[in-house]
Each structure stands twice: as structure tokens, then as C-alpha cells.
Amino acid sequence: MRKDILDITKKLKEKDAHITIVSNGALLKRKEEILDHVDRMNISLHSTNQEIYETITNTKIPIQKIMQELALMKHKYPKVDFRVNATLVQNLQPEKEIQKMIEYIIENDLTLKYIELTPITAPGHMPIKSIIPLLLQRGFTQAKDEKRQMVFQRNNAKVMLRKCTCELVSELGEQQSYCKENSDINISPDGKISSCLIDTKKV
Description:
- It is built from 7 helices and 9 strands.
- By secondary structure, the protein is α/β, with parallel strands linked by helices.
- It folds into 2 domains: about 5-170, TIM Barrel; about 175-203, no CATH class.
- Strands 1-2-3-4-7-6-5 form a 7-stranded mixed beta sheet. It has a two-stranded antiparallel sheet with strand order 8-9.
- Helix 6 (about 165-170) runs antiparallel to helix 7 (about 175-180).
- The longest helix is centred in the middle third of the chain and has 14 residues, at about 65-75.
């Protein structure tokens, strides 16, 4: 959307900045020259199924085209760290669909980050750990375990499972103290700020 995005990335790169761009990938092929100036490209791809993708994103972007172009760019620009971001939504991502996404990641040596829908009280929240058996079936092994993130790897393909803070807090049983020390600041579309998505007291 920014017509000057190439100028911005060039100038930042001259200052030795580490640049990550998050995009839906709709203009990736058309503006591929930007890939000479970025370190990481995160593509939001919530499903390999067009109907499910449209339900989650409320857009008509052709995802098969994006998936093909992403695979092409991955091999054309090997220095760029290409990653796929997907939000896990119950009932919209059945096991068969998750398996298709994992297969796409394996075939193209990509990194996939599945993110839990937050907070855990949100309709459609699905525990991230429910994906682990599918990864193990496809030959992934756990590489490392962090507080909010588990990493699984199979050769050059990688899957990161990111817990929302609410899920972790419910497991730890430490509500106020953990959130005070570790929570991100959340800004809603109407500009209200809170340290907890469940808290109704927003600034």
C-alpha cells in the first residue's frame, strides 16, 4: 500500500537495520524487488483452502497464487527468511486442512508459525498443543521449548507453535504476577490500551 516502501527499506538497510515485513502476500511477485532489502518476510496464510481463508480474513485474495509465488520467491531469494503465519481457529481448520498446510511447509522448506486465538475465552480458541500429534506423525521432532513457544523441525522445514499468554497463565495458575511481568501491550482497533485482553478496564 505504501508507494515509497522500497525507498524506506533501502534507507533502513543503509543503517544496518534488520527488516521484517508482515504481509498477506498479494503483491509479493509484483513488488519482489523489495526482497533485496529485507531480512524476513512473514506471510499471513491462515489456510490452504480458499473458502476457509476467506472466512477467516474476509478477503477474496487468491491463496493458490500466493502459495505458488511464495514458493518461487523462497528459491529465488535464499537469503530472505520466509515464514508463514497462521492463526489457529477451531472448526475452521480441521485436521485434514492442518495436514495440507504442514505438507506445503515440508515441500517448500518453509517456517510455519501457528498462533493461538487470543484470549482463551474467545469463540474458536483451540489449544496449540492439539497440533503436536500431527507434527510427530509427519516426522517432526521437537527442537526447543520456550515459555510461550514450542519449535518442531523436520530437515529444513520448521513449525513454531505460539501459545497466547492466557493459555500459559491458565497452566501456571499465576494470573496477575505473570501478566504484569510478561504481557505485551494490546491496542484495540478503536485505540484503547490494556495489558490483558480479558480485562474490561481499558485506557
